[in-house]
Structure formats: structure tokens, C-alpha cells
Write the C-alpha cells for this entry.
Amino acid sequence: MVGCIACEFKLKPSEAVVSESGLHVQRYDRLESRYLTTGDFSALQQMNTEYPMETRTLIEDVLKLGLVYEPNINSRFLAFYQDSLLQVVISDVEAEFANMDDLNEKFQASFSQLSREFPNLKLPMIYAQIGAFTQSIVVGNGTIGISLDKYMGPEYPPYARFYDVEQRKTMTREYIVPDALVFYLLSQYPLRNFDSRTQEQKDLHVGKVMWIVNEVTGEKSFDTPFVKRVDAFVKKHPISMQKLLGSVYLKGL
């Protein structure tokens, strides 16, 4: 259920030096909500000036409404969200995620742990958005975008129209941090020579990342056969996370 878009975007200088203690989710979704429910032009201006790349990613790559420089793109963007269901979703997201302190704490703790295992890992700028049931996680160059509308809980009524019971199990608040970490690590540590790798090698690489995320979060969010395979290997052959992720071939894995 998770989507990932790789974009060549640059961080603002202030974002590139975020410390662990200051790592938190930027509430881009609140500006988006203001514009899409009231047509408040000042909110749109803030979206374009404070979050230009995030706005471009949302409009062009997530929603695929067109190019941001097209003359009528803003009205097209606004009209898209006037659908009655999406207006309800916007309101529900605002209520469900009025407070995100728990998520900020989890991100801080997880990246603190990851920084010890991967000293060269760049801390991302993390932001929330409302993506109209498209990608759950959007990863750019040093950014993580979280579509809150994909994490409203398995019993959220609109989900029944689009997703089966199995899919809805992971569409919960608890999966936001694990999903974000998986796709961010995959973007920072991609499998070398990906196109020439076997499907098993590709799946095993994802399994390694999922296992690492389970370890740094202290939660067993992912339980695939490849995650189990990695777990069994590490128990027999202790190895650093960095070496595990950087090695394509490990005897016995």
C-alpha cells in the first residue's frame, strides 16, 4: 500500500541541519486544508513560498493534475478536492491528527538510533500532506512526505470502498513511522545494480531494510518471509546494520 516517488529536490539550508532533538513533522497538511476547504489564497501563497517542492510533488507527481506553472493549475488543484468525499476526508484528517507529538517522538528516537548505526545518514525533512488516497509515503531527495489520509485506521468508513480487509490492516497511525523509515532507507541505500539483480535479491534487500526498521523502532511491524530470513541469519552471525545493508552476498543468507 505504500508508494514512493524519487524526485531530485534540494533541501532548504535550515532543513538540512535539523538536529535529532528538533526533528518533527512539518504540518504542510494544515496549509493544504485551509486552501482546499476555504479557498484561502494566503494559504496557497504559503504553500508555494514555504513548501514549493512539496507543492510541486503533490500536484505533479502524486495527483498528476498537470505542471505547476500552467495558468489554471491552482483552480484545477482546488476543484479536484471539492469532491464531497475528499472534503470529509480533509476534515477527518484534521481531527484525527490534531496532535502528532507521539509520531514526532517516534521519529526522533528512531533516527537517533539510525544515526548511530549509519553515521553518514542524512536526517530528512518530514512533512504531512493530504494525498487523496494516492501514495502513502513520498520520498524525495532528503524529504519524507506522509499522506495522512492513508493512515486513518482500518475501520475508517471510506476505506471500505477502495481497499480490502487485508490492505486496511496497515493503514493505521502505527505504521506511519515504520513505512516512512523503510522508504527513506531504500532511497538512501538502494540495491546496487538493481536492474541486473534477481527478484530474490531485490526482495531480500527490502527484507533487510524492514528488519532494520523493526529493530530501531522496537516494533515488529514487518513480518515477511525475507524479514524472518534476515532475523535468523543475524542471530547466528552478528553483523552491523551498515554491513548487512551494504552487502549483496552474505554466506548463509
Q: What stands out?
A: The first helix runs from residue 13 to 16.
